[in-house]
Amino acid sequence: MTIAIDPIITILPPLAVIPFIVFFGERRKNLREASIIIAACILFAVNFSLYQQFLDGALLQSQKFTFFNGLTLFLKGEPIGIIFGLLASFLWIVTTVYSIGYMRGHNEAHQTRFYICFAIAIACVMAAAYSGNLLTLFVAYEAITLSTYPLVTHSGNAKAKRAGRIYIGVLMGGSIFLLMPAIIVTWWLTGTTDFIAGGVFNSISISPLLVTLLLCLMVFGTGKAALMPFHSWLPNAMVAPTPVSALLHAVAVVKTGVFLIIKIVVYIFGFDLIAQTNAAEILLYFAAGTILLSSFIALKKDNLKARLAYSTIGQLAYIVLAALIANVRAIEGAALHIVSHAFGKITLFFCAGAIMVASHKTLVSELAGLGRKMPYTFTAFLIAAISIIGLPPLIGVLSKFVIIEGIIDSQYDWLIIVLILSSLLNIAYLLPIPFMAFFKEPQSIEAADSTSQSVIEEAPTACLIAICITTAGCLILFFQIEPIVHLLSLIETTSTTGVGG
Predict the structure, then answer these.
(1) Which has the least CB within 10 A, 213, 272, 319, 447?
(2) Residue 166's domain spans which residues?
(3) Which H or E run includes 65?
(4) What's the structural domain count of the chain?
C-alpha cells in the first residue's frame, strides 16, 4: 500500500482563503467572492484526488499527535468520510455561488464576517470527514458548533440571539454531558478511541447494559442529528439567512451529526456487538417516532423554512434509523441518504431563499400563483420535493430503497411501515407547495400588493445557477450512483450481521 496525500491538506484551502476574504472585504466584493470560489474548487479537487488515490489502494492517513495515554488526534481516509468530504466540498462551491445572489439581493449586513465563518466551518467539516478516531471527530464536531454560532445569530436581533442560545445550549450541552462522558468511558475500557473495523470493544468483555447505555449516550449526545427530543435547536436556527440554513441542513451541521452516528456504529461498537446485545432497539423506537412526529408537525407549519426544518428532522432520523439497524446494507443506505438528502434539501432551501429575495414571502399560504412569476424556482422545488419523497428517476428513491433492503435483512420489518407512512406524509407537506404556486389563483389583495405582485420575477442569476446545479444533481446521481455504491462496498467490517439479523 502506497502513501498518498496527507488528508490534513483538506483543511488548508478554506483556512488559506480567510486572509483574502478579510483583505478584499466589503469594498471589493467581486474579488472576495471569486477567491472563495477558487478555494472551494481547489478543495473539491483535493478531495477528488484523495478519492482516486484511495481507490488505487493508497493509505490516506496523517501523522498521529499523541498528548496523553492512548489519546491521539489524526486524520484518516475511509469510504464514508471520503464521500462526506466530496459532498461538503462540492456543495461549498454551489452554496458560495448562491450566497452571492442572496446576500447581495437581500442586502445582508456583515457579509465578510459571514464568509469567514462559513470558511472556518467548512475546514472543521473536513476535519470531521477525515477524522481517524472518535476524539478527533469530537473536537471537529465541537469546532463546527462554535464556528456556525455567528452564522445562526447573523441578523443580530433578539430572535436571532435567542436562537443562538438554544443552538449552543442544546448542542454543547448534549456534547458535554452525554457524548463526552461516553467517549471517556470508551477510552477507559479499551485504551483507545480509534476507529477500528468491527468495533473497539471486540477484545474485551462488556455487559449488554453498558453497551446500551454507551450507545444511547452517544446517539442522544450527538445533538446535531436532531433526534427528538434533542431537536429544538434546528427549527429555531431558521432565523438565520437562507445560505446558513442550507449550510446547516445539507453541508455542515446536521450531516456531521448523522455521520458521527454512522461512524460509531461501524467502528466503535461494530455490528456483532449491537446484534448480540440488542443495544439499538430502544433507539430505533426514538428514530421511528422522530420520523413520524416531525412529519406531522411539518404538515401544520405555514412558514416555509420551518416546514423544511421539520422535514429535515424526519429525514435525518432515516439515517439514524438505518445506522442503528447495523448491517452492511443499512449502513450503505444511511450513507446514500446523506448524499440524496443533501442535494434535495439544499435545493428546497435555495428555492425558499429565492422566493424570499424575489417576493419577500415566507409563508406557504402566500405562494398561490407565484409559480407563474418564478417558474424555474418552483420547478426546481417540485423536482427536489419528489426526490425527498423518494420517487424515480431521482436519487432519493435509491437511498430509501437501500434502507428498506437493510430493514428486510433485520428483524424489524415494522420499520418498513414507518418509512411508507413517512413518504406519504412527505407528499402531503411538500407537493401542495408547487401545486399551489402553479395552479392556484392568488387571493384577493389590495392595489398596493397587486402592484408588488406584478413586478415579482425570478431571484438573482447567481441564485438560479446554484438552484439549477443542485436540482440537476438530484437527477444525475440517480443514473450515476455506481461510483458511490462501489466506494461504500469498500467499508471494512468484520461482520455482516445486523441487529437481529
Answers:
(1) 447
(2) 4-500
(3) strand 65-68
(4) 1
